[in-house]
Design goal:
The chain is α+β, with helices and mostly antiparallel strands and 406 residues long. The chain has two domains: 165 residues, no CATH class; 217 residues, Gyrase A, domain 2. Helices cover 51% and strands 6% of the residues. It contains 17 helices and four strands. It has a four-stranded antiparallel sheet. Helix 1 packs antiparallel against helix 12. The longest helix is centred in the N-terminal third of the chain and has 36 residues. The protein is globular and about 75 Å long. The relative contact order is 0.14.
Length: 406
């Protein structure tokens, strides 16, 4: 709960209650629909519903949570080294660093200083917001009319061409460069480009790519995949972006959020909700109400930082993300699995398809882990155990990767 006046605090709390009510109603409404989808895929499991209903329920929660505000409480263990904590201390006054994060960092420093009083000697002056380029340009951009922000959002979304993720940059002559790197690594001038790419990308030859522990970053041959680089423009919900950030080797440059905010409902709708009219009605009503309250708080003088805690997990985030093929290969392998988060799965399939179109000898080996394991001769093909999606995805072309919310 951010520090608010009594009247604003009451409005904030009522809105949180409304979001939670919508969340609970969506769970109840979607439960049977998603159960039907699940047991249609796994008819044998319908005889043991007491065992598998919990799996369906968990996936229902994942869809319904889109209506909850980003201020929803989360608990976690956060392990970090001393150097990272020193960086935190320097950056905790940085531009757009929330008050809550500053408080957490201060508590972390307090606890460490209690255990090691000498640690405080290592602390240096923090960077003030006034010294950042964002702050220096802030007033200039805040002076732009809301219509300018709307135009930016409209043009960005149009440029995606009905995708979640669009390939906008890549290494020139990437396939030839990658093949050249393979020849160098193997000291073999006689390999054709296609042979070289097969040796490094086909799990039938490079079985390390199918390993679930992902040791490819330490393998001499697999390391050549670092030389091929891709850049994407993306639009994901706040919910999906939070999960997407787990892939730290494939970083994104995130926007200054309030410069993208134009006061209008701007959100992503999960597939399961689009398929259920009643759920869709509850969802859209909750979104409209939430954005209205955020605007009311802003108009009432509440800071953007505190008002934005109410923004839903469904909020659209527009960004640019990039990475080299070695890191992207690992991410695409995990996120093209049918158990991956719905939005990230769809974005991943779009990214692989675009890479395949531009670099066919590279793209034909980019698919789900079960495909890679089949190519490598590893059984069972699916490494997910009881979480097996129920479909022979190892036989699918990337153009055949289609799924519902499950």
């Amino acid at each position: 709960m951010p520090p608010l006046s009594p009247s604003h605090r009451e409005l904030y709390a009522r809105t949180v209650d409304a979001q939670m009510l919508a969340y609970e109603r969506l769970i109840e409404i979607l439960k049977s629909q998603m159960a039907n989808d699940y047991y249609e895929r796994f008819p044998a499991r319908s005889k043991q519903r007491d065992r598998w209903d919990a799996v369906v329920e968990k996936r229902t929660y994942e869809v319904a949570r889109y209506v909850l505000g980003v201020g929803t409480v989360a608990y976690l263990y956060h392990t970090l080294n001393a150097l990272t904590l020193l960086r935190y201390s320097k950056l905790c006054k940085f531009f757009e660093t929330p008050t809550e994060q500053q408080a957490v960092v201060a508590k972390m420093l307090e606890k460490v200083n209690q255990a090691d009083p000498l640690f405080e000697r290592e602390l240096s002056d923090s960077i003030s917001p006034e010294d950042t380029i964002e702050y220096q340009l802030l007033n200039q951009f805040l002076g732009h009319a809301v219509s300018d922000r709307e135009s930016f959002i409209r043009n960005f979304d149009s440029g995606l061409e009905n995708r979640s993720s669009k390939l906008v940059g890549w290494t020139v002559e990437g396939q030839a460069l990658l093949a050249r790197a393979v020849r160098l690594a193997l000291a073999s001038e006689n390999l054709t480009d296609e042979q070289a790419l097969c040796f490094v990308l086909d799990p039938a030859h490079n079985k390390i790519l199918a390993d679930s522990l992902n040791p490819s970053g330490q393998d001499k041959l697999s390391q050549v995949l670092r030389h091929l680089h891709f850049v994407f423009e993306k639009k994901l919900s706040h919910c999906a972006d939070s999960q997407d950030q787990r892939h730290r080797a494939v970083p994104s440059s995130l926007p200054v959020l309030f410069l993208h905010y134009n006061g209008k409902p701007d959100y992503v709708t999960p597939y399961a909700i689009t398929e259920n009219p009643l759920a869709g009605e509850i969802y859209s009503e909750c979104m409209e109400h939430t954005f209205k309250v955020v605007n009311d708080l802003l108009n009432g003088g509440v800071s953007r930082e505190f008002a934005f805690y109410l923004l839903p997990n469904a909020l659209s985030i527009r960004m640019m993300t990039s990475g080299e093929l070695l890191s992207l290969h690992h991410k695409w392998k995990l996120r093209s699995c049918y158990n991956a988060q719905e939005e990230i799965f769809r974005a991943t399939v779009e990214e692989i398809a675009q890479v395949q179109e531009r670099f066919p000898h590279v793209g034909r080996f980019l698919r789900a882990p079960c495909f890679l394991r089949k190519q490598a001769g590893k059984t069972p093909y699916c490494p997910e155990g009881e979480r097996f999606c129920g479909l022979p995805v190892w036989n699918y072309e990337i153009s055949q990767y289609q799924r519902r919310s499950l």
